Amino acid sequence: MSLKRAASLSMLQSLVSVGTSFLSVKITSVYLGPAGMGLLGQLQQFIAMVQGVVASGLNTGIVRRTAQLREQPQARAQVVSTVMRLVLLGGLPVALVIAFGSGWLARELLHDPALRMPVLLFSGVYVAGLLGTLVLATANGARDYRTVTLIQIGTALGSLALFALLCPTLGVPGGLYAAALIPSATALAGWLVARRQPWWPARPLSHGFSRPEARAALAFVPMAATSAIAAPLVQILVRDTLARHSGMASVGLLNGVMRLSDLYVNIATSVLGMYFLPRFAELRESAPLKREIRKGLATLIPAVAAASLALYLLRDWVVRLVFTAEFHAMRDLFAWQMTGNVLKVAGWFFGHLMIAKGNPLAMAGFELLMGLFWWAAGVVLVERNGAVGATQAYALHNAVYLAVGVVAITVILRRIAAREAKGAAA
Predict the structure, then answer these.
(1) What percent of the chain has pLDDT over 70?
(2) Whole-number Å distance between alpha carbons of 289 and 119
(3) How many CA atoms lie within 13 A of 213 on its CB side?
(4) Are the C-beta atoms of residues 214 and 28 closer than 8 Å to each other?
(5) How far is CA 278 from CA 269, 353, 426, in A?
(6) Which residues contact 83 (CB under 8 A, 6 or more apart)?
(7) Distances from the Cα of 194 to the Cα of 106, 131, 149, 205, 425, angstroms
(8) Cα dihedral sign for 265, 267, 268, 273?
(9) Distance CA 110, CA 104 (A)
(10) What's the burial of 108, exposed, middle or buried (CB within 10 Å: 0-12/13-18/19+)?
(11) pLDDT for the residue 406
């Protein structure tokens, strides 16, 4: 499928996501307020982190292998069976740890042990959410963008339904319950849509366990798990620093501007995961790879830059439309946040190329160092500038990530070209 087709489907999915996200942001801002939005953001970052610990590396591996085995259905089915067993093996113990530690997590994460029930509820749907993301990754590797789009739309609609039902009736706890249940929406959408697709085995656990495929999938776990842990954990730590500095209401303002960013940044990141990661994995020669890089940079970055500029110029109107009067101070966060969004998409573009062509262990080290840099910058700048400092740290982190990514990809492309030249000479 072409980039144009992938972008069109991603745009459809993103339009639905923008609409549902707009409504969910409006619902949560009205019924939770700034402080409740801050708590919601903390829980959402925790959920993203613990899901990524198990799923991210394995899902990256299955996207890459499914793309490579498009014409080998039996081998592809064995990959699915192997990775699903790894997901269960890793996910069930993590779910138990979350359940038994729910009281402590509520106290440390949400600053209130009485809010342990949303954490406990999340532990109950955790494994189902992992399996849902596995289905999504398999569809992505098979380049079945229609199914990817349907699953993501189903997840978005399910998430909106949860927030619309629980926030007006239960307030802040209802918002936390809704966030905890979102993985179940992904699982339900994934299984309903994928069960009749040719790339998904009818009995996914019945095709055995391959040690070579397991090793190949696990090779991505250090890199992806580091990335999945580092980004949400850093945001949790920076927000905790901001809560101590300015209160949980300031964390809510930060979470609000980040949720606005997600309305359009997710369009670009969906295209990156849906089209470019499997495409980069397929390409082995430098010339077509360079063409895909130029195509991606010419398509994604100007679009994200234009959306960021528009959102910055319309920030007062957007805050009044989406939020309540309590969120007016959010306008001061837009400049650095929008700058960081453009840098983030550009950096992630090169990051996906490094995932497809680079060394997984080297990527793990890179993600760890970048996470430490973000955390250190966040602590310093939040103490100096409050919530604005958090957005400054976000932009600075993404600028450095992009710079390192450009250097790394230049080296990788030169190595590919040198290998081609050596092969031609031989």
Answers:
(1) 90
(2) 44
(3) 24
(4) no
(5) 14, 10, 30
(6) 58, 61, 62, 134, 213, 214, 217
(7) 35, 12, 12, 15, 47
(8) positive
(9) 10
(10) middle
(11) 87
The answer, yes or no, to whether residue 423 has pLDDT greater than 70, is no
Please determine, for residue 308, whether its predicted confidence score (pLDDT) is greater than 60.
yes
Q: Indicate the pTM of the whole model.
A: 0.70
Among 45-59, 231-245, 370-384, top mean pLDDT goes to 370-384
* Secondary structure (H, E, C), 70-110: CCCHHHHHHHHHHHHHHHHHHHHHHHHHHHHCHHHHHHHHH
What CA–CA distance (Å, rounded) separates 219 from 126? 23
User: Both tokens of residue 231?
Assistant: 């980004």
Question: What sign for the dihedral angle of Cα 265, 268, 271, 274?
Answer: negative
- In our burial notation (b when 16+ CB lie closer than 10 A, e otherwise), range 314-348 reads ebeebbeebbeebbeebbbbbbbbbbbbbbbbbbb
Average pLDDT over residues 220-228: 69
Token look-up 């070209």 returns 417
Distance (Å, whole) CA 103 – CA 116: 5
What was the pLDDT predicted at 391?
95
DSSP 272: I
pLDDT tens for each residue of 355-412 = 776 666 677 778 788 889 999 999 999 999 999 999 999 999 999 999 988 888 888 7
